[in-house]
Amino acid sequence: MDEMFEKLQSVADRYDEVAEMLSDPEVIADTNRFMDLSKEEGSLRETNEVYKHYKEVIATINDDEEMLREKLDPEMDEMTKEEIKELKAEKEVIEEKLKIMLIPKDPNDDKNIIMEIHGAAGGDEASLFAGDLLNMYTRYAENQGWKTEIIDETMTEVGGYKLVVLMITGNSVYSKLKYESGAHRVQRVPSTESAGRVHTSTATVGVMPEFEDVNIEIEDKDLRTDVFRASGAGGQHINKTSSAVRMTHLPTGIVVSMQDQRSQQQNRAKAMQIMKARVYDFYAQQNESAYAEERKSAVGTGDRSERIRTYNFPQNRVTDHRIGLTLNKLDRIMNGELDDVIDALVIADQTAKLEDLKNNA
């Protein structure tokens, strides 16, 4: 506990230091430094405020206990004891909150994401389910006040998706959707099934943080870029120019094709954006897999081959296999009401990390 107080005091000291620097005319004149310090001040503010309130609660408990040592009339004695009881209960709640605040933050939590949804096992039904997942995440994003943009798609003849790639931008998108990577299994009667039999199909989801140039570098020697004529709708422009781009990252074999944009330059920019996310995701999953194997995380690695969730339509049930969560409101979840699932995953992850901190203390 003493170690926790030391960390909290260091946060409070740094907050005061940053707040003072933000009032310095030289810092205000330096736009980049002012923005960096403002961001740091914002990230420290809540922890500082909760710790400040915690110290106030402790001080009040000490004052009340000091009063009990004096001769009080029965009514005041009872009131003081009751206040101490309430404050000690509040103290325990704040301590748990502060422990969670001290968990090392994922540096990608504040980032936007690139999400890839693939129709996997199950043919047409898998592609239709991929479309259902796209709709679910799009509606969830709308509920959060985020923006979505489809940046690549390969549709099937039945109206589903072999692949759809979308960008979701907003406040701390990755922190909530990073747990969605993996294989999603659906159990339902396909619209094409005349006998009414329940089929099982899967779609895979990959969630990758969006990276700017300063975050991850891909060397020119590691990248091969080919151009070709785009296919599909678009008129004479698309048919006569090599506007489509195919990028290959040679060390990993990752391939990104982009023909959704009007010009080759725009397709190159989008392809590089997705390539950076995929390359980062490739190496991050390797590191996370090794780490998760060590601590046996309940949430798992997020690998796309790992079955994370089952959507059972006949019973209106969804089950997240990583944390053993079952909810009988699949209809609402498919409509974008994912908060109960995501909140449970966040809590499970925080609990596992708290255990790590205790074990390594």
TrEMBL record:
The keyword Protein biosynthesis applies. InterPro entries: PCRF, Pep_chain_release_fac_I, Pep_chain_release_fac_I_sf, Prokaryotic/Mito_RF, RF-1. Residues 229-245 form the Prokaryotic-type class I peptide chain release factors domain. Keywords: Cytoplasm, Methylation, Protein biosynthesis. The keyword Protein biosynthesis applies. Signal peptide: none annotated. Methylated by PrmC. Methylation increases the termination efficiency of RF1. GO terms for cellular component: cytosol. GO terms for molecular function: translation release factor activity, codon specific. The modification N5-methylglutamine is found at residue 236. It is found in: Cytoplasm. Transmembrane segments: none annotated. Belongs to the prokaryotic/mitochondrial release factor family. Peptide chain release factor 1 directs the termination of translation in response to the peptide chain termination codons UAG and UAA. NCBIfam families: prfA, PRK00591.1. This is Peptide chain release factor 1. It comes from Periweissella cryptocerci. The lineage of its organism: Bacteria, Bacillati, Bacillota, Bacilli, Lactobacillales.
